[in-house]
């Protein structure tokens, strides 16, 4: 099965076109090699997908016939994504909460205290 179709079948991407685009941009690696969307995948291949600034990694167990329900995905792959990837995503979420758009003025006293609390929590 093609890698773009496989990623679509396992619900990593909503459409096959998005999966193909991710492959073309170099966000998909099979056995640590950047691949084209037409690359065939086989069981025991190790796949890494960069999506939303998180590197998901998994090992292929089997090839599905067609797109799967979300509950059946684990039959066809073993997730090996480290926990540190998801922790980095949490930090990004917090940094976006306190991002101020240009032209909104100076931070209020409450904004300043919140920012100080975040820095204080990260130091501990």
Tell me what you see in this structure:
This protein is 37% helix and 17% strand. The protein has helices at residues 3-9, 16-24, 83-97, 109-123, and strands at residues 28-30, 33-34, 46-51, 54-60, 77-79. Strands 2-1-3-4-5 form a 5-stranded antiparallel β-sheet. The mean pLDDT is 86. With 124 residues, the protein is an alpha+beta fold. The longest helix is centred in the C-terminal third of the chain and has 15 residues, at 83-97. 15% of the residues are buried.
Summarize the structure.
This protein has helices spanning 3-9, 16-24, 83-97, 109-123; strands at residues 28-30, 33-34, 46-51, 54-60, 77-79. The chain has 124 residues and is an alpha+beta fold.
List keywords for this structure.
124 residues; alpha+beta; five-stranded antiparallel β-sheet; 5 strands
Task: Please state the structural category.
Answer: alpha+beta
Radius of gyration: 19 Å
Distance between the termini: 48 Å
Strand order of the largest sheet: 2-1-3-4-5
Order of helices and strands: HHEEEEEHH
Helix content: 25-40%
pLDDT < 50 stretches:
none
Beta content: 15-25%
Principal-axes geometry comes out as elongated
Overall number of strands: 5
Number of helices: 4
How confident overall, as mean pLDDT?
Answer: 86
Q: Biggest β-sheet: count, sense, barrel?
A: 5 strands, antiparallel
Write the layout of secondary structure elements.
Layout: H1 3-9, H2 16-24, E1 28-30, E2 33-34, E3 46-51, E4 54-60, E5 77-79, H3 83-97, H4 109-123
Antiparallel strand pairs: 1-2, 1-3, 3-4, 4-5
Helix pairs in contact: 1-2
């Amino acid at each position: 099965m093609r890698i773009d179709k496989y990623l679509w079948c396992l619900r990593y991407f909503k459409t096959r076109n998005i999966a193909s685009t991710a492959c073309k941009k170099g966000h998909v690696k099979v056995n640590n090699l950047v691949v084209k969307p037409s690359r065939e995948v086989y069981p025991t291949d190790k796949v890494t997908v960069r999506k939303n600034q998180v590197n998901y990694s998994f090992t292929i167990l089997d090839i599905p016939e067609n797109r799967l329900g979300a509950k059946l995905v684990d039959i066809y792959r073993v997730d090996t994504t480290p926990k540190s990837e998801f922790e980095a995503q949490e930090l990004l979420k917090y940094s976006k909460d306190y991002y101020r758009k240009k032209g909104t003025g100076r931070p209020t006293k409450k904004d300043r205290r919140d920012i100080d609390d975040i820095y204080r929590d990260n130091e501990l």
